[in-house]
Amino acid sequence: MKTACHNFARPISRRDALRTSAAGFGYLALAGMCADAKAKQAAPTGPLAPKSTHFPAKAKRVIFLFMHGGPSQMDLFDPKPELNARHGEKLPFDLPGLIRPDRLGKLFGVKWNFKRRGESGNWVSELMPHLAKQTDKLCFLKGLHTEGEAHGQAVLRYHTGQANFIRPSIGSWMSYGLGTENQNLPSFITIDYPMMHGGVRNYSNVFLPAAHQGTQIRVRGERASIRHLQNDEMSLGEQRDQLGVIQGLSRLHRERVGRDDQLDGVIESFELAYRMQSEAPQVMDLSGESKATRELYGVDEKPTDAFGRQCLMARRLSEAGVRFVQVSSGYHWDHHGSIDKNLPESCAKTDKPVAGLLADLESRGLLDETLVVWGGEFGRTPVAQIDRGNAGRDHNPHGFTIFMAGGGVKPGVSHGQTDDFGYLAVDGKVHIHDLHATIMHLMGINHKELTYRYAGRDFRLTDVYGRVVKDIIA
């Protein structure tokens, strides 16, 4: 072993180094331990192999659209005539929780018009004209509530179920429980995820096997990129030889030291990275999309180009078999001030791309098996917050709205409601744990049974909470 290791350090050619290393370690034997990519695709056996569900699933995959900052429910989907009628008055009940009364002013009415849209008659603000045309596909949850009045707490709760502890993200749990449909792509991909308010913890595997960590990609121009995926110095054949040596050594080490989840994750990640080189570049290339499709998402238009490309990439990844795709709109929904200017700008960036995604999924026959979730970490208050002389709304975790579409939810439905001012969830209340339980249920998973033993106890995404919102399931 020492002699062979020494050979790696000698100034010889790469091919000679590979041959010498392979011979020194018995490469012919080791290569048999490192399955060929085609064999893996035909009969996957690794941690990302497809797994059986607890019961028949209504959805096969999830697209998780995160509106970072907290969209204002009463300005978008939850009209409150009483709020408008009493604009400028004092809120007629005590503030809940720890909301800071020194930052809150009088009741702050909504300036934008609402209309009942589609055959369902659901209310949608004029700020969302494109989504208004898709409203018969949407299932609104208007009684959401959570804990955490700061972004950091609420964002972590929304993605991991926990506000104060580092826990695996929902995408990692999905990967762990179901594997993936395409062995040449990761099971969990996060697109352009921001590094603030939790950063990598919002797509981390934490104590789950490392293969279930979210893979971050960035969409810039016509192509998305994954860091260090391509090797421009070696051919695929040379990489296969090199990988055989590395994987063989890793497995020999594992046989000596016993099970090691991190090492298993490294072994799998090397294999996946090799397989991805044949498929990922084509999937992550937008240049072949038609002009009509690009227009549908608002690609090449302002202000929709950036988020339109992200949503189009999410469709391509889902269509290619990625189990869980997470998309972030960027941190621009936090409207403490100048909401009359900033909220329309946020809507204009995202409205057309999201509506385009829904229409595109439906036209391709994918929507029925793809669950789309749209929402932020919390909502906004019905009272004004004055920031630099301009009115906005503060954080409100006590009552807010998200919507879901496709993947087994009832279309054109509105479930739950807040009080007359849009502050507190009062009917059809859905906690974030309930939302997670429902997403898992639609994917064929019993949230109470998908557990992982760590540090002496069984963990699950919903901890000891969560109920499935059966009223919204088709």
How does this model look, in words?
Residues 1-41 have low confidence and may be disordered. Strands 1, 4, 5, 6, 7, 8, 9, 12, 13 and 16 form a 10-stranded mixed beta sheet that branches. Strands 2-3 form a two-stranded antiparallel sheet. It has a two-stranded antiparallel sheet with strand order 10-11. It contains 15 helices and 18 strands. A hairpin with a 6-residue loop joins strand 14 (417-418) and strand 15 (425-427). It has 474 residues and is an alpha/beta fold. Helix 1 runs antiparallel to helix 2 (14-24), helix 10 (236-257) runs antiparallel to helix 11 and helix 13 (305-319) runs parallel beside helix 14. It has helices spanning 2-9, 14-24, 27-31, 37-42, 73-76, 81-85, 129-132, 151-160, 170-178, 236-257, 261-283, 291-297, 305-319, 339-363, 432-442; strands at residues 61-66, 114-117, 122-125, 138-145, 188-191, 215-220, 223-225, 324-328, 370-375, 379-387, 390-396, 400-405, 413-415, 417-418, 425-427, 430-431, 452-454, 457-459. It has one domain (42-226, 284-472): Alkaline Phosphatase, subunit A (3-Layer(aba) Sandwich). It comes from Stratiformator vulcanicus.
